Amino acid sequence: MTDYKHHIIGITQGDVNGISYEVILKSLCDNKIMDICTPVVYGLAKAASFHKKYMNIPDFSFQFVKNTDQLSNKRPNLINIFDDEVKIDLGNGSKVAGQMAERALYAAGRDLKNKRIDAIVTAPINKESIQSDKFTFSGHTEFLEHYFGSKENPALMMMVDQDLRIAFATNHLPMQEAINALTPELLYQKLEILDKSLREDFAIDNPTIAVLALNPHASDNGLVGNEEKDILRPTIEKAFQNHINAFGPFPTDSFFAYGSYRKFDAVMALYYDQGMIPFKMLTSEGVDYTAGLPIVRTAPAHGTAYDIAGKNVADSQAMRNAIYLAVDIVRNRKNHQV
Question: Quick check: pTM over 0.90?
Fold first, then answer.
């Protein structure tokens, strides 16, 4: 493969009916991206041209290539994953859009597994339309855990915006299943992954982690549930004894309302909404990072946004931040190995 000055960052096209191409194209129009990496989009050449015309950005152009051996480091690249015409129905989910999102994800995944690219940034998918006999996952995190991880090395979902980092002990689970899944073993494993990621991926020496409580008021010493006493406090103590600087459990409402999250390098939420609601209230430019795996994957922390698809009003900063973070983590991991 050609010797490139920068790291090669693969970008999956996501759902062609949403804002994915809009935020990708707006991001790649920023010349600073080419200064830090060689981007390659896994997508549809005709869909990219459709969105480019729709957005009226005539000065932008891709280098269309068949594989990573042909990449240009002078302008953004696109590997065409399908030659036939694909109907684009802006603002609506469709089976063909799901199939193309799946195809792009597997194409980038294969190149990442074969070390032909250094990281992937995934644009938003429709979790319903992407489902198939092959893709039966509730999201990117679960797919990547299956494709790159193992039972010994599970994935950890983390939301990132500069110094704000919120990780999740459980991911996309119904509420009752999330509570049942929250065992001392699971929480300790996720704390280990988070601590390792903060040190190696974010280059933080001696990081600190706040663990959120499950019950209101952190159970008020057992008046409102026993999970704090039976699961959380013993696990936090065990982690601390093993040189993981974990603290808590902290009641979620006052922890975020009074800004206590600023005192820690990361926060461990126990279920999806507990961490996602405050994160999205605090920032609209966040990044979804999949920690714990041997590969680097980031994504803008937003969905397909069908309601504004085709209106050319989508903010692309989260996508740019996802590209920046992917490059930073690749560099940090290499520096850590030195």
Answer: yes
